[in-house]
Amino acid sequence: MNQKKLRILIMEHFLIANITSVLIPTTVTSIGEVAFQNCGSLTSVIIPDSVTRIGIDAFRDCGSLTSITLPNSITCISTSAFFDCSSLTSITLPDCLKSIGDYVFIIATISLVKSFGVIKNKTIKRLRRCTI
Predict the structure, then answer these.
(1) For the chain, how far is it from start to end, CA to CA, in angstroms?
(2) I want to staple 60 with a disulfide (CB 3.0 to 4.6 A). Which of 29, 51, 83, 119 is the partner?
(3) Which structural domain, as residue segments, surrounds residue 57?
(4) Please, which residues bridge with residue 109 across strands?
């Protein structure tokens, strides 16, 4: 892929790929829908400050993903972005996060979630079936 032209990781780009770690290029501004869905071996993701949005189901069913740090540039996490990431135990939510979709962290055991204004009143729906 030509990194100068890569702006959005497209739908199903890595669907069911046997990858263990990902370093997203700094030219990427959005992680598209289902970009890493069903990547069951994925344990580590490094997201650069250039990314502002994580699409619907982007990391859904990544059962080996244990932790992720989202850069402060993330303003939107779409519906079910981390649905059924059953090994996810740690996530830091950026202060500038403006919107978070429904069912983002379903079926996860999260030991640390940095809360912020947008989800304080919607925590139950966003984090349902999670052990926090």
Answers:
(1) 39
(2) 83
(3) 1-132
(4) 131
Say how many domains are in the chain: 1
Beta-bridged to residue 100, according to DSSP, are 77
- The rounded radius of gyration (Å) of the Cα atoms in the chain is 13
Of 10, 15, 44, 13, the closest CA to residue 30 belongs to 10
* Token pair in block for residue 53: 């949005």
In a structure prediction context, what are the per-residue pLDDT tens digits for the chain, which is 132 residues long? 444 444 555 445 555 567 888 888 898 999 999 889 988 999 989 999 999 999 999 999 999 998 787 899 999 999 999 998 888 877 777 878 888 888 887 766 655 455 444 444 334 344 544 444
CATH of the domain at 97: 3.80.10.10
